Amino acid sequence: MQPVIEIIDLHRIYQTGAAPVHAVRGLSLRVGPGEFVAVMGASGSGKSTLMNMLGCLDRPTRGTYRLDGTDISLLDSDALAAIRNHKIGFVFQGFNLLSRTTALENVELPMLYAHPPLPGRDIRERAVRALGQVGLGARGDHVPSQLSGGQQQRVAIARALVLGPSLLLADEPTGNLDTHTSIEIMGVFQQLNDSGMTIVMVTHELDIARYARRTIIMRDGRIVRDEPVPVRLDAALELTRVAAEHEAADLIV
Prior knowledge:
The protein has helices at residues 47-54, 77-86, 103-112, 120-133, 149-161, 179-194, 206-209, 235-252; strands spanning 5-16, 19-31, 36-41, 62-67, 70-71, 88-92, 167-171, 198-202, 214-219, 222-228. With 253 residues, it is an alpha/beta fold. α3 (103-112) crosses α4 (120-133), α3 runs parallel beside α5 and α5 runs parallel beside α6. It starts with a strand and ends with a helix.
């Protein structure tokens, strides 16, 4: 089966002053359809640089990156923009929603730049469907200030999904959320993954990485460990456990 991500001997070198900075050093990696991968590493390990290249936001200095079989190094800027729009969904720590725009309109935004253009009716129907996927079908007319942090992140996930990408990239998606809400968001990712979505997520939290199926550890621009998650957490069960703990604590008080 063709991998969604295939990188071979990938390097990224930044020239800052006289000394070159080797942010990524000879990475090789395959991620198949339907995998859920957590990328971890200390600051400066190269994980953010890797994610930028996977998201076609940065080009490797040398090496090969194929996304769904397409060699990214052969594409010009317009073709890369089309890849980002149609094949990759992005979810960030900070949500990045337009504050005066409703949830539904935020989800519609990527479709306004689609080529060829989509009919208005299709745009609305897709946005409604994407919000329904993340459990916010009844919140489409709410602006971000009327939504909780977890709901805002669900809107951001719906926006990432609306054009049916091959790959979902999530950069610290629970970084701004409390424990309970973080588990809820990981439940959304697990449901998407169970339905076939390929997900690569950067996180610095070991417990969040345990919701994925595979963990990659980076250090000094290299992959030092790549292994399946031995005991995967189930978000639904974790929510039940956390609720029981909170109820017991309230009884004690």
